[in-house]
From TrEMBL:
This protein's name: Haloacid dehalogenase-like hydrolase domain-containing protein
Pfam families: Hydrolase
Family, per entry: Belongs to the HAD-like hydrolase superfamily. DOG/GPP family.
Keywords: Hydrolase, Metal-binding
SUPFAM superfamilies: HAD-like (SSF56784)
CDD domains recorded: HAD_CbbY-like (cd07528)
Length: 313
């Protein structure tokens, strides 16, 4: 995995200038490719995979609709990027020899967040590549492991609080079509669930502020990263949801935004549709039964028809 990270982040510079402070590497060229055109219901054929459970050739009826949170209910990654930059500015984080405060640009962060998971590992990786910074916490770059961890911990804690402030500000909207689909599913008697790899406190904050307290309380199942031992792409969270809902995995439809979530769903034996974001649009979604730029034109009946048409590859 580490070798893939280095490969993706060592392409020659693109013609777009952004403030990254990256002396040794630039962006993967795929970040500047044309946006995938909008199409509503173009399905893809699920390829066979030894890691995925076999799919019955009989028709599937949707009994449960399961949403991921980050990237599906809200487009969260740019909010995280903004919160990191606010933390860098607050603590005057500067990586020598650059004179400006560290600022992660949009294109750079799209690549980084898909290659390095977790906030602390992102910063740790960046500082190892570009040199540990000076800050209001340390006038000179920290040299001991203890001081470096103190810097990382402090930045992450401050960033987390700022991210919460952004979510609670009322300025963040759910992605198009999500609330309507949730309401349609409940009105039709379907089970409704949210399964996120993020921490429980973070997901609760997002759901209470974005889908509303009533919808959140009416979920038939809510699972976060804290509830399972293994994170996505491990299928544990979706297998657990199937058991809690009392619904066979073949009758569950998952909505994800990334290949990691797609792998978790298909390994659990569930069909999955993708609503991609700018940072995941170039990923390989071959195993999805359909993909959309957003859910604004997608109705529950459309998802039901997609699931009914799933047959063995």
């Amino acid at each position: 995995m580490a070798s893939n990270t280095m490969l993706l982040l060592h392409y020659p510079p693109t013609t777009t200038t952004t403030r990254h402070h990256i002396p040794l590497f630039s962006l993967h060229k795929a970040t500047n490719t044309a946006r995938i055109p909008h199409y509503s219901f173009s399905t893809t054929t699920r390829s066979s995979s030894s890691s995925s459970r076999s799919i019955s050739a009989t028709s599937r009826a949707m009994e449960a609709l399961i949403f991921d949170c980050d990237g599906v209910i809200l487009e969260s990654e740019d909010l995280h990027r903004q919160a990191y930059n606010l933390a860098f500015a607050h603590f005057n984080v500067r990586c020598s020899p650059f004179s400006e405060v560290l600022d992660w640009g949009t294109e750079f962060y799209d690549v980084l967040q898909n290659q390095v998971g977790g906030g602390k590992p992102k910063m740790r990786w960046y500082f190892k590549e570009n040199g540990w910074p000076s800050s209001t916490l340390f006038d000179t770059p920290p040299e001991s492991d203890t001081d470096r961890e103190k810097l990382i911990d402090t930045l992450q804690d401050w960033k987390t609080e700022k991210y919460k402030d952004i979510i609670k500000s009322g300025s963040v909207e759910p992605r198009p079509g999500v609330l309507r689909l949730m309401d349609e599913a409940k009105a039709s008697g379907k089970k409704l669930a949210v399964c996120s790899a993020a921490t429980k406190s973070s997901v609760i904050l997002c759901l209470e502020n974005l889908i509303g307290l009533e919808r959140f309380q009416n979920l038939d199942c809510f699972l976060a990263g804290d509830d399972v031992k293994e994170k996505k792409p491990d299928p544990s969270i979706y297998i657990t949801a199937s058991k809690m809902l009392g619904i066979s995995e073949k009758n569950c439809l998952v909505v994800e935004d990334s290949v990691i979530g797609l792998q978790a769903a298909t390994k659990a034996g569930m069909s999955c549709v993708i609503t991609y974001t700018s940072s995941t649009a170039e990923q390989d979604f071959t195993d999805a039964i359909a993909k959309f730029p957003d859910l604004s034109d997608v109705r529950l009946k459309d998802l039901e028809e997609l699931l009914q048409n799933v047959v063995a590859a």
